[in-house]
User: What shape does this take?
Amino acid sequence: MIAAIRGTHDILPGEVEKWQYVERIARHLCDRFGYVEVRTPVIEREELFSKGTGETTDIVQKEMYSFTDKGGDRITLRPEATPSMVRAFVEHNLENALASAKIFAMGPMFRYERPQKGRYRQFHQFDVEAFGIEDPAIDAEVIDLAWSLVTELGIPQAELVINSVGCPACRPKFQEALLAAVKDDLSKLCGDCQRRSVTNPLRIYDCKVPADQAVIDALPHSVDYLCEPCATHFTAVKGYLDAAGIPWRQSHRLVRGLDYYTRTTFEILGQTLGAQNALLGGGRYDGLVKTLGGADRTGIGFAAGLERLVLALPDAAPIAATPRAFIVAIGEDGRTAAWTLLRSLRRAGLAAQMEFDARSVRAQMKRADRLAARVTLIVGGDELARGEITLRDMVTGDQHAIAHDAIVETVRTYL
Ligand code: HAM
Assistant: This one.
């Protein structure tokens, strides 16, 4: 037996219905908010991510699935959607091609991480991006979409955390203050933090080592170093969230693991996921479109992990299977009549099945039970000769005869 690769999984019936439910709600929300779907390739040039996601990130340094293809090009299985969405925005001039450059995507992403609950090597994102709008109202709209997703899915105890990481004008001052503060306490921090202080000091805020927490909590807050335009922007975003009644908590530790963020960053945390508690994360990336060869356009978006949304769904999520009819055929005459009835029901838009191999009525009824059929239609015998069939209500056990030309409409009332 050749098993699936570590960190990947098959999504089987029983589970896949939850995925379809989450995807349905996500698509419906995008439709209501005016975001249109874009499907980009799973493979891209490696440099899209080294430039876009950023050379100093863990993703680019340690986690990418990259290879040289037969033509000698360096190819990467996308670890996130944002650089691809930016590439598509620039490559197809979506700014002009679309009424508004608000797009979403859904699909598999790949990161060579250590697998654990909520963290996989192939996982799936629902990704939302809005380009070219500077006004803080778009930050609030994107956060509203994210918050609506989590609340409409009924995920309990979700928490929205926000922060502002400033812009290239004000970030250097903050980073200087951060380095100065870290230097004083460097020897008290773990080895990872000491390494990060050289490679990417912002990552120190992500440290989960308990002994480091007191020092990290006392490190500078990026919001205290914002330039006037960044501060005004952040205040406006919070004002819009308050006006919408969306609860938020501000955390100076929310600096996010990707290099492109400017100004607003946010995450929604779930309470049932253990260590991998971010249901989704995102923020503004006002320099990325230009970095990737486009015009100087702003961007903001987020991505939700579909595995994590599915894990966090409440037990009571309405994921009921489609109610269906099952047709039981008696004798060879009954089989042909059953087959034509099966087609009539399906063509009328109803879900219907029958058993092809098992011939005994008992075996057919057993199958109807396993499929949890709502009604069973018994075709054959004397009724068939009279132009009738027998309908059995599988919930109450009641049975009655129905005239052949009334079957479809009668079944419809049950399904
Ligand atoms: P990210 O925080 O790296 O951001 O990932 C977003 C979400 O994807 C996470 O909150 C999590 O739910 C899910 N996720 C990430 N890695 C894994 C994994 N290994 N296994 C399972 N789920 C995972 C981004 O990817 C940005 N592109 C988000 C963004 C869009 N920013 C602006 N626009």
The radius of gyration is 28 Å. The pocket of histidyl-adenosine monophosphate is lined by residues 80-82, 111, 113, 118-120, 123, 125, 127, 129, 257-258, 278-283, 285, 301-305, 307-308 (CB under 6 Å). Residues 16-33 form the longest helix (18 residues). Residues 325-414 form a domain with the Rossmann fold fold (CATH 3.40.50.800).
